[in-house]
Amino acid sequence: MTTEIITVFIASYLSGSIPFGLILTKIFLNKDLRKIGSKNIGATNVLRTGNKIVAGLTLFLDISKGIIPILITKEYFTDLVYLSSLAALLGHIFPVWLRFKGGKGVATYLGIIFILSFNLGVIFCVSWILISIASKYSSLASILSTMIVFIVSFFNSNFELTSYLFITFIIILYTHRQNIVRIKNKSEDKIKL
Question: Distance (Å, rounded) from C-alpha 119 to C-alpha 113?
């Protein structure tokens, strides 16, 4: 069992740690994403390059990083699905290839949540859209939507899922700590919908 735990964790982490935003902007735009906008490697910052296709592809692949390892784990190591989910998320946020400086985790979280609970995935998406329209802040929508999913999970009667969602909410809150400060100071960039 110990070997399985180590294997699942490492495989999921490495899958989550692939920096697609950095790779795609380098290949297609010959730019270093770490020197653009927020210097983040996620899809939102890729969008700041002005190339919507590369940004969309980054978003798709970052979501896939949360889907593929979880599906494989679910098939062969069912008991370790939450470990795999956490490892994939941590891989995206703290990739070993980039000195543990990665994305904020929202796209990969989205892929994960849809595999763990399709209904909660829908709730996240609807919440994110509504909050984004109301506030014009992508970061605020991500934080509050993650919190809403966690709260709703209480009615699921699944302690493991609720525990995982609490941990991921804290992680997403942490990755957006600078955004929170900018929102408070009214210096956060607004999204154009």
Answer: 9
pLDDT band at 70 (very low <50, low <70, confident <90, very high): very high
Q: What is the mean pLDDT of residues 34-63?
A: 87
Is residue 107 located within the same domain as residue 13?
yes
Last residue of a domain, one of 83, 116, 149: 116
Residues of the chain with pLDDT > 70: what percent?
98
CA distances from 137 to 11, 37, 42, 156, 190 (A): 34, 16, 16, 29, 5
Q: Is the pLDDT of residue 193 over 60?
A: no
Domain residue limits at 166: 117-193
Distance separating alpha carbons of residues 1 and 68, to the nearest angstrom: 22
For 123, what's the count of Cα atoms within 13 Å in the CB-facing half-sphere? 16
| Angle, vertex CA 40, rays to CA 14 and CA 148, nearest 5 | 80
Predicted confidence at residue 53, as pLDDT, reads 93
Contacts 24+ apart (CB under 8 A), 97-100: 97/17, 97/19, 98/19, 98/22, 98/34, 98/41
Give, as one character, the DSSP assignment of residue 189. P
